[in-house]
Every structure is written in C-alpha cells, then in structure tokens.
Write the structure tokens for this entry.
Amino acid sequence: MAQFDVYRIEGGGLVLDCQSDLLRDLGSRVVAPLRPAGDPAVSRTRLNPLIELDQGSYRVATQFLRAVDQRHLGTRVGSAASQEWEIKAALDMLISGF
C-alpha cells in the first residue's frame, strides 16, 4: 500500500489512499472516495482535484475522508501519485481552510 494508490472497495466504489507511507504499521488507512467528475457534490476545483485513471475521470471527495481497516481495501487499480501536489493542496484546504 502506498500513498495516493487507488483501490476498489467492497461495493465497487473507488477510494484514494491519502495516508503517509511512514504510518503503514497502524493497520488502518485514511482514504477519500472518488466520485465521477460530473458529480455536483464534488465540484470545488481546489477541494476536489480531478484525477484521470484508466477507468475514467474522477474527483477526489476530500470532504468525505474516513479511516478504514486496511483489510477492507480491495484491489489496487491505479495511482494518482503524479498529482501529489494537487491532492495535498486539497487536504490542506480541508484542514486549514486555505
């Protein structure tokens, strides 16, 4: 498991692993769901960065972060590591407000 990897979870949804790799021994991971790019609930560009995967275009639903037991993460289906700075800026926006 690596920060910014994308996983398919039970039920078919996609989540983005946002947790630092330095904390991989916790047994849980902080993830953000991925929503279709056109979903109006995730239309704030800075808070909801757009990522492109083989499966299509998605926005990171940063405002819906949650911790999950890493055993519940399913198959790794991609990575958004190339968009590290946009994702970190969204996490900063969520926590700091800027």
Q: What stands out?
A: The helical segments are 84-96. Strands lie at 5-8, 14-17, 28-36, 50-53, 56-60, 66-69, 76-79.
